[in-house]
Each structure stands twice: as C-alpha cells, then as structure tokens.
Structure to design on (225 residues):
DNA sequence: AAACGTTGCAACCGCTCCATG
DNA sequence: CCATGGAGCGGTTGCAACGTT
C-alpha cells in the first residue's frame, strides 16, 4: 500500500478560504509551481499538495477564462468528446482558459442533456433509436443526469463499455472512432459537424491524431497480445 | 412561506502514468 | 529491468443555490 500524499490529519479539507487562496497565489507568484508535495508547507498552507494543485489549476490560475461556454466551445467539446471520449484534460487543452474539471462539469451538467434532447447518445455519439429515446417526462425534467457514470443510466447500456481504467478509455475512443465511421457510412448525426478545422489549430489536429494513433496502437496490443 | 427536489460546481479520492534512481 | 514517488487524470461526492409544488 502506498503512503498517502500527505498527512491527512494535519490538513484542511473542503472549501478554500480567501486567506488560503492568497497564500497560494502569493507563493506561486514568487516561487512558481514547482513541487506540489512540498508546496503547502513552504507556502504555510495546511493543505495537501494535490488540493493546492487542484485549486490553482481549476480556480486561481490567472489565465483562466471563467464564465459561460460559447457555442463554439460547446461545439468543439462535443466534437472532441466524440473523438477522444472522456479525456477531459486533452479536450480542455484545446480550449484556452478552460480546465479539465470545468469541461467535465459542463459536459455532465449541460452537454449530455443537450445531446440526449437531440436524440444522441452522449456516451458514443450515436443516434438513439426511437425505442431508446428518453420518455418525454424524463427528458423534460432532465432527470437522472446527476451522476453520469454510475448512479442512473441515461440510456440503455448496450453500447456503453464498463469503466475500465487500464485501457478502458481506449475502448471508448475506439468506440467513438467506430461510431464516427458509422456516421460516415450512413446515418449522420443531426447538427453535429465533425469537421475539426473550425477553431482548432494545427497542433490540435496533431494532438487529436496522436491520441487516436496511440489508442489504436493500444487496442492493437489488446487485440493480439 | 415552507418543504422538497434539482442543478451546478468545487473539491476529494483513488487510480494510472511517468520520471528517476 | 525494477521499485518508488510525484504528478496528473477521471470519477464521484458534498453542498449551496435555485426552482417547483
């Protein structure tokens, strides 16, 4: 068993106070990010390094763009999710000023429902056949989206791979890729233009391609060991 | 006005990845 | 090559705010 990342008895948990935020900001301004494990002590914070890192990356970083997602951003998230699956950090990396946590939350709270209302399964970006469509009272209430991965399945699970950490998300990527193939072969998703050239730099496409190549390689390894 | 349900977001947890010795 | 530790990631939870009955 590994040691915990910090001595939890001596650390604060929960919401950050203004003073803590200021301490963290001041420390990183003068010393840079450096080693998260030792940062809390050096900065005089009773927090675990992971907690500091998360707070900085998701909330305090000066280059964060806060506020509502634009339609372009929404579009891009949907397209990238179709390609990459739940690789939030990769997706967030294509959205300047957005964090993986923010993208993940936005997906789970807004975009999933949006896709479902459009008749698209958010897990694999395929059209939901009519007998799988959420019943009207379900979709109108937006119910059951609270906890996306576990609590209540939004659609039937026949196309959903169980969350499998090692290589599981590769399944998801390859599944997304195959679903894209499906779309190219026949039923195209309504209003889902998968052309990634709109607001994506060349490096974006490179990264996406990298991820796809990587996942393909790994799925090959899984296929023939 | 109160009770209850829903939503959105910040934060935590546990796992995996990756660099290093 | 292997073990170890730190960083990063994705899933999940807790809770305040908001909406509905």
């Amino acid at each position: 068993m590994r040691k915990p990342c910090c001595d939890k008895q001596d650390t604060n948990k929960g919401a950050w106070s203004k003073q803590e935020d200021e301490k963290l900001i001041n420390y990183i301004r003068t010393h840079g990010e450096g080693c998260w494990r030792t940062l809390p002590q050096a900065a005089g914070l009773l927090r675990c390094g992971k907690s500091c890192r998360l707070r900085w990356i998701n909330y305090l970083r000066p280059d964060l763009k806060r506020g509502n997602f634009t339609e372009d951003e929404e579009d891009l998230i949907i397209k990238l999710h179709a390609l990459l699956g739940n690789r939030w950090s990769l997706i967030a990396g294509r959205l300047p000023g957005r964090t993986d946590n923010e993208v993940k939350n936005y997906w789970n709270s807004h975009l999933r429902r949006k896709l479902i209302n459009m008749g698209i399964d958010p897990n694999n970006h395929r059209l939901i056949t009519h007998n799988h469509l959420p019943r009207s009272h379900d979709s109108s209430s937006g119910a059951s989206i609270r906890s996306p991965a576990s609590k209540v399945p939004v659609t039937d699970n026949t196309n959903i791979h169980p969350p499998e950490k090692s290589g599981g998300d590769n399944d998801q990527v390859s599944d997304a890729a195959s679903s894209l193939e499906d779309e190219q072969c026949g039923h195209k998703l309504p209003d889902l233009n998968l052309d990634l050239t709109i607001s994506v730099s060349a490096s974006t496409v490179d990264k996406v391609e990298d991820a796809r190549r990587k996942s393909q390689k790994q799925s090959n390894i899984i296929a023939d060991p």
Q: What stands out?
A: The two ends of chain A are 29 Å apart (CA to CA). Chain A has two domains: 8-60, 71-223. Residues 132-205, 214-225 of chain A have pLDDT under 50 and may be disordered.
